[in-house]
Amino acid sequence: MAIEEVRLNPFDKIGKEWMLITAGDQEAHNTMTASWGGLGFLWGKNVATVYIRPQRYTKSFVDTKERFTLSFYSEQYRSALNICGSKSGRDCAKETEAGLTPFSVDGTTAFEEADLILVCRKLYHQAMLPECFDVDGEDEKWYANKDYHVMYIAEIEKVYVRESAVR
After folding, report:
1. Which of 9, 14, 60, 88 is the most exposed place for a label (fewest CB within 10 A)?
2. What are the backbone angles phi and psi of residue 135, rounded to the nearest 5°?
3. Rounded Cα–Cα distance for residues 13 and 51 (Å)
4. What pLDDT was estimated at residue 5?
5. Rounded to an integer, what distance in angstroms lies between the CA atom of residue 14 and that of residue 39?
6. Is the pTM of this model over 0.90?
7. Element (H, E) at 32
8. In angstroms, rounded to a whole number, what is the distance separating the alpha carbons of residues 99 and 89?
9. What's the pLDDT tens digit per position in 134-167?
10. Of 127, 158, 154, nearest to 143 (Cα)?
11. CA–CA gap between residue 93 and residue 84 (Å, rounded)
């Protein structure tokens, strides 16, 4: 399916329902829950923007691989997304604990249970910097530990939609 055919509200899908960011191959990959990100158009491409803190294990996979996936789930997987957001793949097999089934897709990894999968190719990344905040207090509010996110902009190369999923 073409991304232009997908009908979704990114404020709900990302901010309220959450998504998984997954990178790596079948042998070695990791996933994390995210509720910060965006979808749009930049540099003549359909893009996704995601933000990952430096201490997240998934970041090392995103950094070393060309592609990652963003995947979205029905409400029945809320507890799985909670597990993937609260446990580290360094310490446990969280996808097994969450009941998710990984599979290879276009050189990266996603999960069979997803309703919507975006395969993304990295285009740009940049660490957020404290001196770039234009509103007083936002830095302290979100970064008390000074663990600023790295922003990734990625082209959405492919879209997979579960037949039964509502678009």
Report:
1. 9
2. -115, 125
3. 15
4. 84
5. 9
6. yes
7. strand 29-34
8. 14
9. 998 888 899 999 999 999 999 999 999 986 554 4
10. 127
11. 10
With the CA atoms of 153, 158, 163 and 165 taken in that order, what torsion angle do they form, in degrees rounded to the nearest 10? 10
Beta-strand pair 67-72/45-52:
unpaired
Nearest in space to 71 (alpha carbons), one of 107, 109, 41, 44: 109
Give me the architecture of the 3-161 domain, per CATH: Roll (2.30)
Q: Are 31 and 111 in contact (CB under 8 A)?
A: yes
- Sheet with 45-52: strands ordered across: 29-34, 19-24, 67-72, 116-127, 150-161, 45-52, 37-42
User: What pLDDT is recorded for position 90?
Assistant: 84
CA–CA distance, 13 with 48 (Å, rounded to integer): 13
The span from the CA of 76 to the CA of 154, in Å, is: 28
One-letter amino acid identity for 102? P
- β-sheet bridge partners, residue 138: none
- Amino acid identity of residue 137, one-letter, is G
Of 56, 47, 33, 73, whose CA–CA distance to 152 is shortest?
47
